[in-house]
Amino acid sequence: MVYLDFAKAFDKVPHDLLTQKLASHGVDGKVLEWIRKWLEGRHQRVVVNGESSGWADVKSGVPQGSLLGPVLFKIYINDIDLVADLITLLLKFADDTKLAQRIRSEEDRQRLQRALDALLEWAAAWGMQFNAEKCKVMHVGRHNPRYTYKMGEHVLGTTDVEKDIGVQVKSDLKPSENCAKAARTANTVLGQIVRSFHYRDRRTFVGLYKLYVRPHLEFASAAWNPWTRADIDVLEKVQKRAIGMISGMGDLDYKGRLRELRMDTLEDRRKETDMAETFKIMKGLSADPAIWFVPAGRPGNERVTRLAADPLNVRIPAARLDLRKNFFSVRVCESWNALPSDIKNSANVKQFKMAYRQFKNGLTQAT
């Protein structure tokens, strides 16, 4: 995987070339003129120790902090997909861009290198620039040949851990690094709350925990759901610590306090998140189901089992390694297939979550 970094991304976009691209996308008339006027007429100067330079016109860049700025930037760089069309994967999120290619031979290496060369040519033609020193290569896989790659004359550095849209991705693809960082951040925020509130009644303190601490422990959990007991406990200990600070519950253990507060363990919440994400994919709300799952009753499947009875059931892929077994599209299959059909046929995500919780609580009470 190659993580790319645009140099001063939002500040580099030339206004004249941006309007050309907008026009080529069919944006014209008053809308195009409105955008042009919104970008023009901006000025800047430098102030140091009370001394200021003269005003200069701003002829490039989209305003950061605006709603329209990121949209215009996305439109401007959107055609880099065409430049790297032979690459297995190219994903963009704002100014974060990454390429991925399976490397088995020198020919594969050359294909990826040609894509990097083409991206540099694209950047030069469209007034953009890559910060080669910040662009990194992550080699994944035990049998990876670990070739070197260049951007121009600069040999790209390698990395074992990279922050990818808020998630710590490690070259071994295990979630331990992300779990540890999430726990550290959550504990820091929890400490700030504790220092600010000496009396911790359940309503106020639980509300603060849910609002400011728990999101750090759950952000994008479907992408990094831990499976080892050590990683699970690293996260759970933060919630256990927080719940243990609530006044008037000293005679209850962790599970008892959660029942009293009508809360779930973080592990149970991640399972619910998995099911909700699976529901959204199967309904086509967040991704194409065909990319993630194979229907259990697809024609040509020689093994006709009870799974095929429900058209929303999915085939459970074969997996040998723990890493594969716990990948999202593998780990959710069995739990999803076990859900009753009426839950999987819920009208929307809210209704699905309510039905899932009732189903889960029913199973808990039965056991």
Explain what the structure shows.
By secondary structure, the protein is α+β, with helices and mostly antiparallel strands. The protein has 17 helices and 13 strands. The protein has a five-stranded mixed β-sheet with strand order 6-7-1-8-11, with no helix packed on it. A two-stranded antiparallel ribbon has the order 2-5. The chain has a two-stranded antiparallel sheet with strand order 3-4. Strand 12 (161-164) and strand 13 (167-170) form a beta hairpin. Helix 2 packs antiparallel against helix 3, helix 7 packs antiparallel against helix 8 and helix 8 runs antiparallel to helix 10 (229-244). The longest helix has 21 residues, at 176-196. The radius of gyration is 25 Å and the shape is globular.
Extract low-pLDDT stretches: none
User: Structural class per helix/strand content?
Assistant: alpha+beta
Strand content: 5-15%
Strands, count: 13
CA-to-CA gap between the ends? 45 Å
* H/E element sequence: EHHHEEEEHHEEHEEEEEEHHHHHHHHHHH
**Helix count, per DSSP?**
17
Q: Largest beta sheet, briefly? A: 5 strands, mixed
Rg, Cα atoms, Å: 25 Å
Give the overall form.
globular
User: Strand order, biggest sheet?
Assistant: 6-7-1-8-11
Bin the helical content.
40-55%
Quote the average pLDDT: 91
